[in-house]
């Protein structure tokens, strides 16, 4: 059975109403494929995020200070996605990162990916992208909450060492007054010394 071609159909996947929605968060999106970059930007815009498109890792790095998340291709000319993420986390240690790739796992590992990294395989649907963006953000928040007590102890020790006290962070706002970057740095330190 042959059906006539129908022109004018959009090839852009649309998110369902069940997909997670953003609240204006800035998301740096880096991919060297312009069509895919444009598609991800449109999906994120429609879902309430503020995408910041970058066609190169160097362009993406310049946008990191104002970003809430980084979405990046893994295999790109010059700098790989994991290298971009490592450099971005020097600027924003708490930055959640979502990788996108259509390459096999062995090639991804050779570019610095680990099994624990969040990966969305190409091709993907709009819902899959939004679900992964939400998942990565939720995992970071859970990780910080899970280690909140130990982070607070490390923070108290750091303040005490500097001659302060935990109350210096603000009454009733003990941890909230600190930048998330500081919490992530402390969390990384805590994981390194085995306080899990």
What is the element layout, followed by pairings?
Elements: E1 26-30, H1 34-46, E2 50-54, H2 57-63, E3 69-73, H3 81-91, E4 97-101, H4 105-110, E5 119-121, H5 126-146, H6 148-161, H7 180-192
Helix pairs in contact: 2-3, 6-7
What's this model, at a glance?
By secondary structure, this protein is an alpha/beta fold. It is about 45% helix and about 10% strand. α2 (about 55-65) runs parallel beside α3 and α6 (about 150-160) crosses α7 (about 180-190).
Describe, in plain words, how this protein is organized in 3D:
The chain is α/β, with parallel strands linked by helices. The chain has helices at residues 34-46, 57-63, 81-91, 105-110, 126-146, 148-161, 180-192, and strands spanning 26-30, 50-54, 69-73, 97-101, 119-121. Strand 1 (26-30), helix 1 and strand 2 (50-54) form a beta-alpha-beta unit. The radius of gyration is 20 Å and the shape is globular.
Largest sheet: 5 strands, parallel
- Give the rounded overall mean pLDDT: 75
Strand order of the largest sheet: 2-1-3-4-5
Q: Based on DSSP secondary structure assignment, what is the total number of beta strands?
A: 5
The proportion of residues in beta strands is 5-15%
The low-pLDDT segments are 1-10, 161-180, 192-196
Helix/strand-derived category reads alpha/beta
State the helix count.
7
**What is the CA-based Rg, rounded?**
20 Å
Helix content: 40-55%
| Order of SSEs | EHEHEHEHEHHH
Shape: globular
> Terminal Cα separation, in Å?
61 Å
Regarding quaternary structure, how should these chains be classified?
single chain
């Amino acid at each position: 059975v042959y059906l006539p071609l129908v022109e004018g159909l959009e090839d852009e996947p649309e998110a369902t109403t069940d997909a997670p929605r953003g609240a204006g968060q800035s998301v740096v999106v880096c991919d060297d494929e312009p069509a895919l970059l444009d598609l991800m930007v449109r999906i994120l815009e429609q879902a309430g995020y503020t995408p910041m498109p970058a066609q190169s890792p160097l362009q993406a790095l310049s946008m990191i200070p104002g970003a809430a998340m980084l979405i990046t291709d893994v295999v790109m000319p010059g700098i790989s996605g994991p290298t971009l993420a490592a450099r971005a986390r020097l600027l924003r240690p708490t930055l959640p990162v979502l990788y996108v790739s259509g390459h096999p796992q062995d090639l991804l590992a050779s570019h610095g990916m680990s099994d624990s990294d969040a990966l969305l395989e190409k091709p993907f649907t709009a819902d899959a992208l939004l679900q992964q963006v939400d998942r990565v953000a939720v995992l970071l928040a859970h990780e910080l909450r899970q280690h909140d007590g130990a982070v607070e102890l490390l923070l108290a020790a750091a303040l005490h060492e500097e001659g302060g006290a935990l109350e210096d962070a603000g009454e009733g706002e003990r941890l909230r007054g600190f930048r998330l970057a500081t919490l992530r740095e402390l969390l990384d330190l805590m994981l390194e010394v085995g306080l899990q």
